[in-house]
Amino acid sequence: MKISRELILVKGFRFGGVNIGLKDESLDFGGIVANSPCSAAALFTKNNFPGAPVIVGREHVADGKLQAIVVNSKNANVATGVAGIEVSRNTCRWLGEELNISPVMILPSSTGVIGRPIDTTKIRTGCKILANQLGEEVEYSERFAKAIMTTDHHPKFAHVVLEDGTKILGIAKGAGMVEPHMATMLSYIVTDGDLNSNELRAALHQAVNESFNRISIDTDTSTSDTVVLLSAGYKKTDRKDFQIALNDLCCDLAKQIVQDGEGATKLIELKISGAQDDKSALLYAKSVINSPLVKTAIYGSDPNWGRFVMAIGKVFDFPIPLENLKIYFGKGARRVCLDAEHSEDLTLVEALRPLLQAKEVFIEIELGMGTSTERVWGCDLSEGYVAENAYYTT
Amino acid sequence: MKISRELILVKGFRFGGVNIGLKDESLDFGGIVANSPCSAAALFTKNNFPGAPVIVGREHVADGKLQAIVVNSKNANVATGVAGIEVSRNTCRWLGEELNISPVMILPSSTGVIGRPIDTTKIRTGCKILANQLGEEVEYSERFAKAIMTTDHHPKFAHVVLEDGTKILGIAKGAGMVEPHMATMLSYIVTDGDLNSNELRAALHQAVNESFNRISIDTDTSTSDTVVLLSAGYKKTDRKDFQIALNDLCCDLAKQIVQDGEGATKLIELKISGAQDDKSALLYAKSVINSPLVKTAIYGSDPNWGRFVMAIGKVFDFPIPLENLKIYFGKGARRVCLDAEHSEDLTLVEALRPLLQAKEVFIEIELGMGTSTERVWGCDLSEGYVAENAYYTT
Predict the structure, then answer these.
(1) N or C: which end of chain B has fewer CB within 10 A?
(2) A338: nearest CA in chain B?
(3) Are residues A61 and A192 in the same domain?
(4) B241 and B370: one domain?
């Protein structure tokens, strides 16, 4: 089962993306509509101030059934009080009226600036426009993928076809405010497989934990993060294969998000091995992948391996002996290992430079304390991140 | 008692700063030498891989007595194995021989790049040169202040004179890898007061907790952080006044460090009030002051107040009702308050912009949950931080 970064037609689902003028003339309002009610599962942000759509979405998916998803970009509808919740409920109601679907069968999402009121007249008109511009073909799913983008540079999607013919298609957006706590960003996954909502929930939980929960762009956790999985039920599906395919698909979408992180120029894959337990393995991994000084050194391809030592050392609760620590850069035959004993070998340090210049940087940190491992993905920190975020609402 | 950002002669102490060619021709080797043994106290980094000088320094200050401090910049002597420890011990031995002081009465510090061997021949020669270029006058303490700088743009010092005439002088360096966990950066404080080492230890602990432990530049905790307080014992000193003066002096030095943080263009003072307890108050404060999206918005003077909401909300373990949250910007008559109820008031949002354009940005976040408060200082995140750190060793 190979992940392909192309769109594909999935039986039973129509898509759409339109412009309703929330900010400028780019696509800003999109929907996924199933021909009939689907089994559904969703995971949401852990941020304590979730956006209004997250509050409404949690209610609507609680019974494991959904028939549509409606998303606006340009405005996150977060910290907008009772009025914001009302907008999200109305969005579902208005689109439901157009499509003859019960509002509680629709999951709403919003992404964009926080703390600004959303233009309800535009949303109301938008529901009418969107309902008339839905289609099964990939040009429609591409418009959906574009409509949910914020600072993303390109739309993100991937699909996989199982051996039994079941298709899974995922469409995501990311860019900033991304940190590995629970679901992170917007991601919508549809399948023609026949899984029920309990099966979907379990499968999504496992896949998200291995993928979206293991990426970080900037340590900030969005208030709007949502991952939804809809199953139309046309195909008899092998459960084991489905899980493997879903895991791979989510990992691919997660990596796409990190690769297109705000200002990112490189994808970093970090493996922690030899940790004493899973909890500490994840703490070490996060400390390194989130360290601004590690991220800037990778951006500059600077072989400043001491910063990795610092980042492991600032996990105060889990000290390890320095002589245990081995830091590997690169993969395969070109792999270079650095440790305290070899810090005097400047040839070794210089050998890092070309490995750090690659578009994908692989690092493994071996702790020599046990057998637990952890893998996370992140990106470098460039001037571009600052430039994109300094004047975001301006 | 007024803090002055000028150097002052303190009876009993000589200073020096020289160039020994560790990297270029700038001052890179400095010392503080007392005329006789002093009471002393010190606090060090909590990083689990402390630099060799920190390991040696902890031993030497354990008995509460020191007579000298020796510091090199350009190389942190961290992750350099047994050889690194040997260098730090030898530095104390060589300088001790020149000055006729026992090596265990000398506290060593190093700051600069991590994981590179240090040139011992240059250090050995440096001890001879330094021993012959010590003086009491402020031109000597200024040379010391310059010799300990790394990416600092200017030397940092402050003094205070107590009503009873006791003088306290502090000299610090900061710039990057600064995060509020324990002592953060190098800071040397001398006084002619008559406090014993137990009194110094208690006083330093309190002062550091209110100052250096409350600043953050980039969440990365250095392996070399050291704060030392030496007392020559010439003056009979009022203990209460000394504590107040020391707290103020450390706060001033801490703010100087943040103001000159790598790439920093603004000082941010953040107060959390109305927290349920002290622990959560500090967690909220750190979450906001360390958020890259908050820091970039302040850099761009972007009135994106929703990012503060996000940063409070990502303290997952301590949820608070959104309707409780009030965010104040500015001080005095120009203070502006924003909350979920007023997010529609764009005039209010626009009123933030001039407050964010100031060189010192004041923010108070009121949680309405209890009576605990916390105050921290940080800086904005600019392209300059990335530029300074991307090619640090190159």
Answers:
(1) C
(2) B115
(3) yes
(4) no
